[in-house]
TrEMBL record:
Organism of provenance: Bradyrhizobium betae
Protein name: DUF2000 family protein
Database matches in InterPro entries: DUF2000, Pep_tRNA_hydro_II_dom_sf
């Protein structure tokens, strides 16, 4: 199935495995919250056991270093795409309000980004992530 939109997450490659997974989970929750229309129907197995709905389209995950993450953020904002962000300072917090404060305390150009995610038209996302490789 071809989607008009694309969801991309860009995760810093030098993180520990648990950090990468944590960042990806938090960032995709931002996409789900901002775009409820991307959520599919609930699941059910052959036994009739119900399960939660998931985002109904693929999420492409790219790897990047710090400068490439900053470049992707700039490209997104230049194209009026509002991304979800995760900064290194957020690893030191324990709740959502503290996460927001950690981001609010730092100017955009000084954010120590470890990940971002965005959803937009396919061609727009392609321009934002141009030059990045899929995360390994």
């Amino acid at each position: 199935m071809q989607f008009d939109t694309k969801i991309a997450a860009v995760i810093r490659t030098d993180l520990q495995a648990w950090q990468k997974l944590n960042v990806a989970a938090f960032l995709t929750s931002g996409i789900a919250a901002a775009f409820p229309e991307c959520i599919g129907e609930a699941y059910e197995d052959a036994s009739g056991t119900p399960y939660l709905s998931l985002i109904g389209q693929p999420i492409l995950i790219y790897g990047a270093d710090g400068p490439a993450l900053s470049r992707a953020l700039d490209r997104a904002l230049t194209r009026n795409v509002k991304p979800a962000v995760y900064t290194e300072d957020m690893f030191k917090t324990t709740h959502d309000a503290a996460n927001r404060e950690a981001v609010r305390a730092v100017a955009r150009t000084d954010l120590n980004l470890v990940g971002l995610a965005m959803r937009a038209e396919r061609k727009v996302i392609d321009k934002i992530v141009d030059g990045l490789k899929f995360h390994s």
